[in-house]
Amino acid sequence: MLISRDWLQKFFDSPLPPVESIADALTFHAFEIESIQQIKNSRQAASPVRGDDASDEVLDVKVTPNRGHDCLSYAGIAKEVSAILKMPLNHNPFLDAANLNPKTDAVAVTVEDSSLAPRYIAAYVKGVKVGPSPEWLVERLGSIGQRSINNIVDAANFVMFNIGQPLHAFDADTLIQKDGKYLIVVRKAREGEKIATLDEREYTLKSSMLVIADGNADVPIGIAGIKGGKRAAVTEVTKDIIIESANFSGVSVRKTAQALPLRTDASARFEQQLSPELAGAGMRAAVDWILKIAGGEVVGFADVCPAPSKPWSVSVTVEKVNQVLGAQLSAADVSDAFTRLGFQFQNVGNNFTVTPPYERLDLLIAEDLVEEVGRIVGYDTIPAVPLSPFPKQPEVNSNFYAAEKTRQDLVAQGYCEVYTSVFADKGARAVLNKIDSVRPYMRENLTDGLAAALKKNLPNKDLLGLKEVKLFEIGSVWQDGKEITMVGRISEKEAAKEWPLEPIASQTYENIPISNTVRYQAFSRYPYIVRDVAMWVPKGTHEDDVLQMIKKEAGELAVRVIFFDRFEKEDKISLAYRIIFQSFERTLTEGEANAAMEKVYAALKNMGFEIR
Fold first, then answer.
1. DSSP assignment, residue 475?
2. pTM for the complete prediction?
3. What are the tens digits of pLDDT across the range 47-80?
4. What DSSP line would sit under 380-415, residue for residue?
């Protein structure tokens, strides 16, 4: 979530601290900051609050998934900053009265499955004047990389980023009226139904996907929670609009966005599951802004909410807070944290009962409240204490133990572990959402992948210093509708074999052998050159002494020297070595390898050896 410091300042009367201080506050109490970027604003005047030049700073806040329903918005981030820095908000948009009056029957709304759309609000506004947005709105959207489209669309986008509620506006004149009434239907798409979206693309829909339809024409005008349709797009000639502020099933939106594929700022928020209450606040804010910057008259609202959400409560004791955090906080400390967060609560005998704000859908159990106290108080203020002893020796998963033991046995036999793709060119189980057309099935064996890996590694045998390439893999295959863990091995001298991994009775961690750690060494992207040298040497000559001399004379380009052969003939001994030349910076030439070998030959002759 991109957060403009100037935009964030609108939530506070007191000047915000430097952007670095805001970043530190969020990092240590809420979310990581990916980056801070300084941008230039188009306005010429300095900020009335900061009194500096016309620049702005934008934080890239990495909002965690559990807070996507409230903190993918300026209001959510502002509440966090307020709680952490003890700076009061000048207003809380989440609490803006959702006065959705007057009601109207000029627009009717039908929701076929309320589990997929718990709430749908339509506002009918007549006589708007579509045109460019005011400079402040263009600037705010531009600060977070959003392109201005027109005042209607921009107002909807502004509200979405400001409080997290996605909205959409339809051109009412493109819809069909019957008996002077419009009909908006929220339904599942028909299999194969098509829709052209605002981005000039056409999508073929499946029956599992939710759409917004013009009920009188029975045609889709939007993909619910994701993208509006081109058919009802707002243009410069639009006069009357129907504004949508709804609540959609996060699972439904996510599956549809993934399947099409089409992911938008709106779908990213609906996927996190928003509160139905937010739809009301979003609608009120959008209508108010549109009336201010585009004019018009509100005919009325249609609000369909079959099962309104009810407030809920979560309880936690001070004892529980201290037990989980390993702290010694008082009731006053807990009360202060909840007050700073804007929670409504009661404390009876050090038992706190909290009524979370409607947008905080993540607060469900006592441990959620403990986390809130801990991060607001500051984890750095909580003393570190050792963990209490575990009451029993933990057992190791039998499959994990079997895999580790098999892995060590094969490594001891000289095999190297590889990981090959779980996807295959053929098989019984096809991948539903394949990334591309390559390997669209789940593999049925390990042998095919191991054979391909063996073929690729054979040319590198000399570089790796291996006498024989021996590979193994432990991984999943899909056979007869089941996922099975198999072990496979292959080498130059045997045909490939694979067998099911048999679980081994549970063991304790004390009985698991520890693998020897091998330090990773980077490899070169450039090809290598191989040279062999053999010589007659006197008896008593040690192979390693010759190897070290060859390494020295061959120079830095000799990345590996291997002793690979020895035999005796009468009173003479023959030693043979293989030298691998390679650079990390460029492709070597034959001349460079030949020059290095001449130095090796000269050194060997000086020692009295006869080159074979």
1. E
2. 0.71
3. 444 444 568 999 999 999 999 999 999 999 999 9
4. GGSPP-PPPPPSSPPEEPHHHHHHHHHHHHHHHTT-
